[in-house]
């Protein structure tokens, strides 16, 4: 499925997220402390800059999002040196058609009654800002650049770091 993203940076962001698929969503508790949950990204594309996640109604996450929707989602692939941080606003989405469209074979393990499972909540995160670090150099090249930086006093240029804004 094609994405209608406005720039190459938006496309790179989506390419990294879809490869990693599992993110840690951090939200705030009423006492101000932060808490993170591992979640599976349900998107098949990043149209409109929204990420979707299924969560269980039996967990606190839906309740916390209803109180404070400010979230951060981090994705990490240490084997390929790809990292993503997404800041956004989360809300519960009750659109049954969207649930049906996003529901997949792995979702059945968590929600055996399917998209109409009474325990299923769909969380939609509107991305406000994201950053990614996409390091394509080999470990040897990275070490060489780090050593060169230590000698020259100039910061190393390793990989691509990009900030991506959404309207």
Quick description:
This protein is an alpha+beta fold.
State the domain count: 1
Low-confidence stretches: none
CATH class reads Mainly Beta
CATH topology: Pnp Oxidase, Chain A
**SSE order, one letter for each helix or strand:** HEEEHEEHHEHE
Task: Explain what you see.
With 167 residues, this protein is α+β, with helices and mostly antiparallel strands. The protein has a single domain, classed as Electron Transport, Fmn-binding Protein, Chain A (Pnp Oxidase, Chain A, Roll), CATH 2.30.110. It contains five helices and seven strands; from the N terminus they run αβββαββααβαβ. Strands 1, 2, 3, 4, 5, 6 and 7 form a seven-stranded antiparallel sheet that branches. The radius of gyration is 18 Å and the shape is globular. The two termini are 22 Å apart. 23% of the residues are buried. The mean pLDDT is 86.
